[in-house]
Amino acid sequence: MVRHILAAGLLIISCNLYSQEFKKNSYGISGGPGILGTLGHTSTTGVDGAMFEVGFSYYRRMTTKITFESGLLWHHNNLEASSDILPFNSRRYTVGFLYIPALMKLAVTPYFFIQAGPLIDIDPRSNRSITNQTGLGASLGIGFELPACKKWMIQFNSCINIHSWAISKSDPLYPNPMVDFIQFRMGIRTR
Q1: How far apart are CA 92 and CA 45, in angstroms?
Q2: How many Cβ atoms are within 10 Å of 18's Cβ, its own excluded?
Q3: How would you classify residue 148: left for phi > 0, otherwise alpha for psi between -120 and 50, otherwise beta?
Q4: pTM as predicted
Q5: Predicted confidence (pLDDT) per residue in 78-124, tens digit
Q6: Residue 47, Cβ neighbours under 10 Å: how many?
Q7: Closest C-alpha to 80, from 70, 95, 99
Q8: Coil, strand or helix: which one is 19?
Q9: Taking the CA of residue 157 as centre, how many other CA atoms within 13 Å lie in the half-sphere pointing to its CB?
Q10: pLDDT at 45
Q11: How far, in Å, CA of 171 to CA of 131, rounded?
Q12: What is the CA 182 to chain-centroid distance, rounded?
């Protein structure tokens, strides 16, 4: 019994020592606008501007070049979807949901990175104009980070997010999947 406790303690200590070498947590906030689109049989145009996202991020450095990025972001927009086949119907939607990214970020240079990974969309609202927006999606982006001071980094990135890819909507006009074609995000994070 004592031998098992000592082995477990040694394993925990060695994992913690290794984690101090490369693995480092950092946190940040970000937000930004974008242009909404769709993939499929409907054509959509933004109403009241376009989309906007804001949220908190968590970063875990895995190696010197690879970082895991997650967090919780709020996505909001108003859109008008119109059918491009007869009958030419049109409908307005208010879209708002939370999503959790699980991205891997590769540092190409000390300041430039590319990132990609899945998204989990969560619709917490009970009063909504469509049935449900919960589903899976994907993200692909590029960006750069600049040191702002000793403990902070300013991050600028542009990405394409595909939301609600893995679910089907009961409304034939609702864009499925919904795509943030051009999204610009600015944030600040700890080093």
Answers
A1: 10
A2: 10
A3: alpha
A4: 0.74
A5: 777 666 666 667 777 777 888 999 999 999 999 999 999 999 888 77
A6: 15
A7: 95
A8: helix
A9: 27
A10: 46
A11: 8
A12: 13
